[in-house]
Amino acid sequence: MTVSFEDTDMIHAAQHVEHPQIIAPLSDPQRIATVVKAIVRVAEAWSLTNAEAAALFDVPTATWSRMKAGAFKGNLDQDKMMRASLLIGIFKGLRLLFNGPLEAGWPKQPNAGLAFAGQAPIDRMIAGGIPAMMSVRRHIDALRGGV
Questions:
Q1: CA 143/CA 81 separation, integer angstroms
Q2: Which three-class secondary structure state does DSSP give residue 26?
Q3: Which whole-number Å values give the CA distances from 140 to 29, 32, 60, 70, in the listed order?
C-alpha cells in the first residue's frame, strides 16, 4: 500500500503535530479529522491490527474503529497530539531512511539493537507509551544522521 501525504490538509496536520512547542489539544473537527486520517494511514501502512493501533494511540478498540470509519467525534488531547506527532515523525523518518519493504515493515520486525532487546519497535512502543515512542523516533533520526 502506498501512503501519500501530498494532501494539503494532511501536510498541515503533520506540521502542526511535529513541532513540540505548538502541541496542544485539538478541538477543531476538521483538523481532528485530518490528524486521525493521517494516523489511520500510518497504521494501515504498517499493517497494524486494530488492537495494536488502538494501544499505540491509547484509545479503546471501539474508539479506534470509529477513527478508522471516519466517525470519530471527540477531541484530541495533548497526549493524543503527542502520540500523533511521534507516529507521523517515525513514519516520515522511515520513508526517508528506507526504500522498499523495510519502510513499512520495520516497525513490526524484531530488532536486535540495544534499544529493543529483540522486541519489534511496535511492541516496544505499545509497552512503553510516549517515552518509548520518543526513543524510537530518536533512533530513526539518529540512523538518518539527524541526531
A1: 24
A2: strand
A3: 31, 26, 28, 30
Cβ proximity of 120 and 132 under 8 Å = no
Q: Phi then psi for 49, rounded to 5 degrees?
A: -75, 165
Q: Taking 80 as the threshold, does the pLDDT of residue 147 lie above it?
A: no
Is 100 in a helix, a strand, or coil?
A: coil
pLDDT in tens, 115-136: 898 999 999 999 999 999 999 9
Query: Exposure string (b/e) for 69-88, b if CB count within 10 Å is 16 or more?
Result: eeebeeebeeebbbbbbbbb
Q: Which three cell numbers stand for residue 108?
A: 513490526
Among 7, 6, 14, which residue's Cα sits nearest to residue 36? 14
In tens, the pLDDT along 34-85 reads: 999 999 999 999 999 999 999 999 999 999 999 999 999 999 999 999 999 9
